[in-house]
Amino acid sequence: MASVRLPWFVFAAILLGASISWWHAYPELPERVASHFNGAGVPNGWMTKDQFFTLSAFLVALAIFTGLLPPFLISKMNPSLINLPNKEYWLAPGQHDATVAYFRLWFAWFACGLLFFVALVSTGGGGKQPQRVTQAPEWPVHRFAVGISCFYGRMHRRVASSIFEY
């Protein structure tokens, strides 16, 4: 099983890059920033820049929480409380540690993807507040949705597969 160090190193690198971007953007932003745009690209939601950075910090904490909590719960919970295909095999005494290691690795990568999405969306303006968005940057949202689908599909395919394949 691959080491879980690489995804957390990538996570730290993304966090460092986003933090530097946020640090540079903070003094350049007006006190009130647009936080939501309608379909025509016109701002229709606002927040203070302090609220914006508080929300960013909360989303970073959510990414960390998402990467650490599920594998921890799987390692500590009673198997009867876990909803997992073929759990009799995956959570059996001889397979339990490998299953937890697999989830640690995959949820660490998921946390990286979540943090990357948050950083990409929140630093997309480069510190400049547009009056109107002429072309909505929808590709981060679409790619994130595709990434979540692939993540779930790959994980489900592994745990739902026949025990003889692993």
- What structural class do helix, strand and pairing data support? mainly alpha
Shape: elongated
- Secondary-structure element sequence? HEEHHHH
Helix content: 55-70%
Would you count the extended β strands for me?
2
Number of helical regions:
5
Strand arrangement within the widest β-sheet reads: 1-2
User: β content, as a range?
Assistant: 5-15%
Low-confidence region ranges:
none
pLDDT averaged over residues: 81
What is the terminal-to-terminal distance? 12 Å
Q: What summary fits the major beta sheet?
A: 2 strands, antiparallel
Query: How many independent structural domains?
Result: 1
Based on CA atoms alone, the radius of gyration comes out at: 20 Å
Structure write-up:
A hairpin with a 5-residue loop joins β1 and β2 (43-48). α2 (49-76) runs antiparallel to α4. The chain has one domain (5-25, 32-165). It is elongated and about 55 Å long. The protein has 166 residues and is mainly α. The model has no long low-confidence stretch (mean pLDDT 81). It contains five helices and two strands.
Task: List its traits.
elongated; 166 residues; mainly alpha; single chain; 7% strand; two-stranded antiparallel sheet
Topology:
Layout: H1 5-25, E1 32-37, E2 43-48, H2 49-76, H3 87-90, H4 96-122, H5 139-160
Antiparallel strand pairs: 1-2
Helix pairs in contact: 1-4, 2-4, 4-5
